[in-house]
Design goal:
heterodimer; A: alpha/beta; five-stranded mixed sheet; globular; B: mainly alpha; Recoverin, domain 1; 2 domains; two-stranded antiparallel ribbon; 47% helix; 6% strand
Amino acid sequence: MGCGMRKSEPKLKKCDRVSISVPAATAIRAALLIQRWYRQYVARLEMRRRCTWNIFQSIEYAGQQDQIKLYSFFGHLMDHFTPACSERNLISHIFRENEICRDIEWERYFCYKSVEVADSYSGPHLTFPMTFCGVSKLVEAFKHKQQLHARYVLQLLGETWRLLRILPNINHVSTCHTKEITICGDLHGHLEDLLLIFYKNGLPSLEKPYVFNGDYVDRGKNSLEILLILFGFLLLYPNDILLNRGNHEDHIVNLRYGFTKEVLGKYRVHGKKILKLLQKIFSWLPLATVIDQKVLVVHGGISDTTDLDVISRVDRHRYVSALRPPKRSLTVNGDKNQTINEEVFGQMEGRRRVCSLTYQSPVQKFNIPQRRSLHNLPISSQLNWTVEEELKRRRRQAGFNQSYGEPKKSDSDSDPESGEPTETDENEWKQIVDVLWSDPMPQNGCMPNEVRGGGCYWGPDVTQEVLEKHNLQLLIRSHECKQEGYEFCHDRRVLTIFSASNYYDLGSNRGAYIRMGPDLVPHFVQYQASRTGIELSLRQSVGHTERSALRSLRQQLFAHKSDLISAFQEYDSENTGLISQSQWASATEKVLNLGLPWRVLRPQLVSSMKDGMVDYHKWIQELSITEPKLEISDTSILETMYKNHSNLETIFRIIDTDHSGLISLEEFRQTWKLLSSHLKMDISDKAITDLAHSIDFNKDGSIDINEFMEAFRLVDLSAHTE
Amino acid sequence: MAPKKKEEPKPAPAAPKPPEPERPKTPEFDPASVTLEFTPDQIEDFKDAFQLFDRTPTNEMKITYAQCGDLIRALGQNPTNAEIMHVLGKPTAEDMQSKMLDFDQFLPMHQHICKAKDRGTFEDFVEGLRVFDKEGNGTVMGAELRHVLATLGEKMKEDEVEQLMQNQEDANGCINYEAFVKYIMAS
C-alpha cells in the first residue's frame, strides 16, 4: 500500500513498550482488517443513530407545525368575521392581549403582599433585594426538590419584570473585565443539567459572567425552577447574567409543550397569576447579546433581512408571541371573487410544508390581501373555492354567525398596540421571529423554514453578509439539539450550542457549554446528566434511544391505523392482504408525512413478511398498542381525537381561562366544533354531544382536562418485552 | 550500469517527490466503466439510506464526499479508507467537506466497492485477530491490540480505539476475540 506501509515501519522499530513478535506484514494486514470492520461498525451505528434522531426530530417539528397551523386557522377565523357573543369569547381568549390596564395596575394585580405564608411552609424564605445567600438557598432548595412559596415566586418575578423593562433589546458585554464568559444553550426544564453546569463551571458571579441563550422552559419538568434560579442571579448580577429570549419563551407555545401545565400543577391557587406575569416577562426578555462587538448570540439565528439596528429599536414587549403577528384590519379590496388555486402545501417528497410564519415565498401567488403572512389559507388546488365560499363554509361548520367585513376594533390594552398595523410592525415582527426560529442550512440562500413553520433556513452566504454588515466574526445560536452538545457550520462562523443533555431520551445526546476569553476562541465543555450513574457504551445508548424512538413512532402509526389500512388497500386491489415493501413505504409516508427512511426502518418495524411482501393487516395488529381507556362507540372519532390530542389539549387550556383544569360540556362542544372545522371534518351535533357526555366521567357537567388527557395515553404493550 | 533496483527510492531527495507508489500505478476510478448490477429493490433501499445522510433541507438527494464512506459502510461493505478515496477520485481534505455528490454519482462508487474481492468474512476477521494470540488460547492482550490499531495500517485515533474496546477486556486485560468479533458484527 505505497508510502503508508513504509512510514509505519520505522515507528514499529521505535516502540519497545509492546513487543510485537508477529511479522510486520502480517500484523499490518491484520490491523487493516480490524480497522475496516471497526469503521463499518461505527458507520452502522451512525446510521441507526441518524434514523433515531430523524424520528424524534420529525415528530417534534411536526408537532410545532401542527400548532402553527391551528393558530393560523384561529387567526383566520378571528380576522374574517365577528362571531356571536359566546363563541367570540372562546376564540378571543386566544388573541386577547390584555384588559385595559396600565403597568401600575398590573403591578397591583401581581402583588405578592396579600399572599400569606403558612407556618407549615418548609421551603426557602427569600428576602429582597436579592442576595447571594438568597440565590444559593434557592439552588439548594431546588436540588432537594423543594418548592418555593407562591408569595416569593410572585415577588421574585415582579422584581425581574421591573428589571427587564429597563434592559435594552440587545445586551452588550465585554470580556475585558472578567477574562472569560460562559455561554449556555437550551435547557428546556432540565434542572439537572443546569446544576451540572454550575457544578463544573462555578456559580455565576461578577468574575464569572454567563449568557443563557433561551428555551429555558417546556418539555422538562423543572422549567419554573430554572427560571427562578436564572432570574435570581439576574437580580443579583444584572450586568453579568445575560438572558436571551428563545422561541419557547412564548405563552402560546407553552400551552402545548408542558410549561403551562407544570406551573398550574405546582401552583393551583396562584398559577394563573404566575403565568400571566411570566407572559410579560417573556416579552421583555432581550433578543440578543453581543460580546466584544464581535460575537452575536441569538437563540435561533438570522435571515437575509436581519438588521441589528432595527432590532435594537423595536418595542420588543409588543411581540408577545410568535404566533400572534401584529393585528391587522380587514381590507378586502374588491377581492371577493378572486380564486385561490395555488396549492399551499408543496409537492416535495418527504417533507411536510406549511407556509412559514414570516417568509413570503415568491412562488406563491395569492390574491388575497397580502399583508397577512401567517394566515394563508391551506386550500386544496382541486377545489376552486372563492374566498367567500370557503369562509362561509368554515363559519357554518364552526357554528358561528355570519358577519363579514366589519373592521375589527382593536382591543385596547395596556400595551400601545392599538391603531392600524403598519409596514414597520410586520417588518419588526419578522425580524424577531427570524431571530428566534431560524435554522442554518448548508446551501447558499434563504428560504422559509417550513419544517418548523417559523423563521427561515439561512445559508453560508447570508452568514457572511450579515456578519460583515455588522462587523461581527461569529454567530452563536442554539435551537437545535446536537448530539455532541455543539456543532459548527458555515465554515466555523456559526456555532450551535445546546445544553440539555438526554433531550430526546436518556443517552440521546450530550449537553455542552462554551467558555470564551478575550481571544474569542470558543472552548467547549461537554457533559451528560445521568440518572443511573452508569456510563452507557455507545452501542447501548444508541440502542436505548432507538427503542424509545421506535416506541414513539409505533404510537404515531397506531394513531393513523385507519388511514394506513385505506392507503394499503389502494395498492391491494385484489384484496390479497399483501403488498410489496415499496408500496408499504410509500403508503406509510403518504399517511404520516414525517419524511422518514421507511425502508431503512422496515426491519425494525415489520416482522410479518411473506415472500418479501408485507402482510399489512397482521402488521397493524402487531403494533401492540392498546386503545385509549375511553369508551366511545364511534371509533373513528376516537381515532381523530387521538391523532389530534395535542391540539385538543391546547384548545382546552386556552378555553380554561380560570385555569381550573375543568371545562364545561358546552365549552367542550365548542372546542370540538372548532377542531373539526380546522380539520375539515363533518361531525353532527349529536355525535359531539354524545361524545361530550361519555367523556364526562363523573357526570357532573364538566370535564377534567388532565383526566381526559390521561385517558388518552396509549400503552405500548411491546414496551415490557425489553 | 543499472543501479541496484530498489523498491523504494533513496530517502531525503533534494526536490519534493510526487507521492506516487512505485508499483504499477492504479488507474484512476472511472465511474462510467462500472456496470450496475443492483436490483431495483436494492436501489430503493440505497436511496432511503442515502436520504438519511442527506442534510439539505430541500431534500436535494446530495451528500458530502466525507459521508460517502460512512454510507457505503452503513450499507454493509467494509472498504479501507484508501479504497474510498480511490472511488472518490482522490479528493483533497477540503473537497471532502465541501464537495457534494448525488445518488447517480454514488451508485457506481458503491458498486465498485461491492465487487471488490477481498471482502473479509467472519473467519478472516477472527484470523486477523488470532495473529496476536500468542498463547493460542483464544485471547489477545487488550494493550497489544490497542497499540496495533493505533499505530499500524489505517491508524485509529485513541478515542476510536477506546470506543471499540469498551467493556471488552477482562480483569487481566485480555479479550476473547471470537466473542469480540461476534459483538462487532452483531450491531
